[in-house]
Amino acid sequence: MSIKIGDKAPDFTLPRQDGTLVHLKELLQKSAVVLYFYPKDDTPGCTKEACSFRDSYESFKEAGAEVVGISSQSEASHQAFAAKYRLPFTLVSDAGGKVRSEYGVPSTLGLLPGRVTYVIDRSGTVRHIFNSQLNATRHVTEALNIVKQLVGAAAP
After folding, report:
1. How far apart are CA 48 and CA 37, in angstroms?
2. Which domains does the chain have, with CATH numbers?
3. 133 partner at 20 to 30 Å CA-CA among 76, 100, 108, 117?
4. Which residues pair with 13 in a beta bridge?
């Protein structure tokens, strides 16, 4: 099953890089969520993507969204990756890829875990999906544009 724009985002509870649990439902009570699935910590494309999210993180916060990165690496791997590149946002560990499957994130060439970003509004509805293995940094500009549109639409 693949999640489409307009669908409710599947809720999940997964461990952050510090071992505490993240509940999507709780994050959505405070802000929209930019959930980005990426293949692997500390690889060239994933590092570019994470650093691009880092560099735009304040813009996401100002626009009313929290950024969450998700891959199958362990909390320890995420912790080292976040520390090395000073990532200010949460990375969660989807060991076994259960949440990746629930969202229907496709593999690339059947081998590499896919790179897909979902923008989820506070009601839990998926408002945008961007799927590109090769344009890692474009995930950030796509997501930020949508988050800004959501804020504009919500303004009185």
Report:
1. 14
2. 13-154 (3.40.30.10)
3. 76
4. 23
Q: Mind listing the pLDDT tens digit for each residue in 46-99?
A: 999 999 999 999 999 999 999 999 999 999 999 999 999 999 999 999 998 999
Identity of the residue numbered 24? L
- Between CA 113 and CA 143 the distance in angstroms is 20
Measured distance CA(122)–CA(65) in Å, rounded = 9
CA distance 134 to 99: 22
Handedness of CA 106, 32, 139, 14 (dihedral sign): negative
How many other CB atoms are there within 10 angstroms of residue 154's CB atom?
A: 11
Neighbours of 81 (CB within 10 A): 22
Q: Active site includes 46?
A: yes
Q: What strand order describes the sheet that includes 65-71?
A: 90-93, 65-71, 32-37, 116-120, 126-131
Containing 54, the helix (H) or strand (E) segment is helix 44-62
CA distance 115 to 133: 5
Active-site choice (46, 70, 105, 140): 46
